[in-house]
Automatic annotation (TrEMBL):
Residues 235-368 form the GGDEF domain. Signal peptide: none annotated. It holds the Pfam family PAS_7. Residues 377-462 form the EAL domain. The lineage of its organism: Bacteria, Pseudomonadati, Pseudomonadota, Alphaproteobacteria, Hyphomicrobiales. Keywords: Coiled coil, Membrane, Transmembrane, Transmembrane helix. SUPFAM superfamilies: EAL domain-like, Nucleotide cyclase, PYP-like sensor domain (PAS domain). Residues 54-84 form a coiled coil. It comes from the Bacteria. InterPro entries: Biofilm_reg_signaling, EAL_dom, EAL_sf, GGDEF_dom, Nucleotide_cyclase, PAS-like_dom_sf, Rev_trsase/Diguanyl_cyclase. The chain crosses the membrane at residues 16-39. This is Diguanylate cyclase.
Length: 462
């Protein structure tokens, strides 16, 4: 039986060989381990890179979502702001296609949904306004063509503004602002109330608040236009200036409400006396003016003045009182008595003064001599104001004689004015002037004081 502990010679290996084999196996194992380690590291590196890419993509997605959310919020804010504007807003590109518009614009012109979409043609929107009678005027195709031609002729590089009137009476101010790349943005603002307020302010500035008649401002404007025609060979103008006689007595005795009622009644009667081409104005206080076209000036103006005089002489019912008043009228003919409004009114005023001086309730035509008389009157008034301070007035005394006894029983103080240049001025000249200007009050006080002081020095038997 062979001994198992003994190896046959043929199967015996040398230690060196075994060492090499074992070293090779070890190296193989180490190599495989190294390859595994390197593979694991490469995998880990790729995994980390992949995770970093995923993280970056996630961050980018979050940033995109945040940007989209911010853009959406901005769009909502912009839409809210646009749709809460008091004005209509629209934007068109260089091809005249709608870019955007707000609700106010859509409602203002009652635009259907298809005309609110981006890309809607400007021509279609304008045609819709005209064909549906939204704009005031015709609704035909030719009307739309004409409006479009007018709009297309607007300068593309300048701001333009216009006012469109809608069929319902509203006024829309359209302001177009060009954009750098072509096209434009336009605002559509309802200016109806603004224009009404402006018209009301203008009306109030040109009309009397009490009688609703034109005032001096509108009178001058109207006269300048009429006079420009008269100077070029058109019809003449008759300018009548009138005031109410003793109007102050009505105010003083019945009160200002009665005076206002009288003035309104006079204004109504004056309107009924004239035609549509005649202007009736209140100049202030109880002064009125009537301006009319005349072909035969003197007879026609005289007939009009007489008609007015008779109409105003009829008693006026003021409620609890009936007032009878008269009027004095001065007449000037243009361009004979003046070539501008101021000159004509001044001539009529001079004629009015002449009428009042001659007797109330009458009318007078302007005469060149009246100007000289007025200048003399103004100079007399100016001199009289300084005469009292300069001691130019003096008193003369006329005795009262008792017829039966022949004795002096009193004296009448007579006021005289010794003018330094003109000598003695008749009381007939300066007393009426003093009454008109109010100088009669201080003048009367001076007369009373002076007469009493001088009488105190007389002998007792006087």
């Amino acid at each position: 039986v062979p001994d198992p502990l003994l190896t046959p010679a043929a199967l015996s290996l040398s230690p060196a060989f075994l060492a090499i084999v074992i070293a090779g196996v070890a190296l193989s194992v180490l190599g495989m381990s190294l390859v595994g380690v390197l593979a694991d590291r490469r995998l880990a590196l790729r995994t980390r890179r992949f995770e970093e890419i995923i993280s970056q993509l996630s961050l980018a997605r979050q940033q995109v979502e945040a940007s989209q959310k911010e853009l959406e919020e901005q769009r909502l804010r912009l839409d809210t702001a646009m749709n809460h504007m008091g004005e209509g807003l629209c934007m068109f590109d260089a091809e005249k296609r709608l870019v955007v518009c707000n609700d106010r614009y859509a409602k203002m012109y009652r635009l259907p949904p298809e005309l609110l979409l981006p890309g809607a043609a400007h021509r279609a929107i304008i045609t819709h306004r005209i064909a549906n009678g939204i704009l005031k005027g015709e609704t035909s195709d030719s009307a739309a063509t004409q409006v479009l031609a007018t709009l297309n002729a607007l300068p593309a590089d300048e701001i333009s503004s216009r006012v469109d009137e809608l069929a319902d009476g509203r006024l829309i101010c359209v302001t177009r602002q060009p954009m750098p790349g072509g096209g434009w943005v336009a605002t559509h603002r309802d200016v109806t109330e603004q224009r009404r307020s402006e018209a009301k302010i203008t009306y109030m500035a040109q009309h009397d608040a009490l009688t609703d008649l034109p005032n001096r401002v509108l009178l001058r404007e109207w006269m300048e236009q009429a006079l420009s025609g008269a100077r070029c060979g058109g019809p003449s103008l008759a300018g009548l200036m009138l005031d109410l006689d003793r109007f102050k007595d009505v105010n003083d005795t019945l009160g200002h409400p009665a005076g206002d009622a009288l003035l309104k009644s006079v204004a109504a009667r004056l309107r009924r006396c004239v035609g549509e081409t005649t202007l009736v104005a209140r100049l202030g206080g109880d002064e009125f003016a009537v301006i009319d076209y005349v072909s035969d000036p003197v007879p026609e103006a005289g007939l009009l003045a007489e008609k007015i005089r008779k109409a105003l002489s009829v008693p006026i019912d003021l409620g609890h009182h009936r007032v009878t008043t008269t009027t004095s009228i001065g007449i000037a003919i243009a361009p004979r008595d003046g070539t501008d409004s101021d000159e004509v009114l001044r001539s009529a005023d001079l004629a009015l003064y002449s009428a009042k001086s001659a007797g109330r309730g009458s009318f007078r035509f302007f005469e060149p001599e009246l100007d000289r008389l007025l200048q003399a009157r103004r100079g007399l008034e100016r001199d009289m104001r300084s005469a009292l301070a300069n001691g130019e007035f003096e008193l003369h005394y006329q005795p009262f004689i008792h017829v039966a006894s022949g004795e002096t029983c009193g004296f009448e103080a007579l006021l005289r004015w010794h003018h330094p240049q003109h000598g003695m001025v008749s009381p007939v000249q300066f007393i009426p002037l003093a009454e008109e200007t109010g100088l009669i009050v201080p003048l009367g006080e001076w007369v009373l004081r002076t007469a009493c002081a001088e009488a105190a020095k007389w002998p007792d038997d006087l």
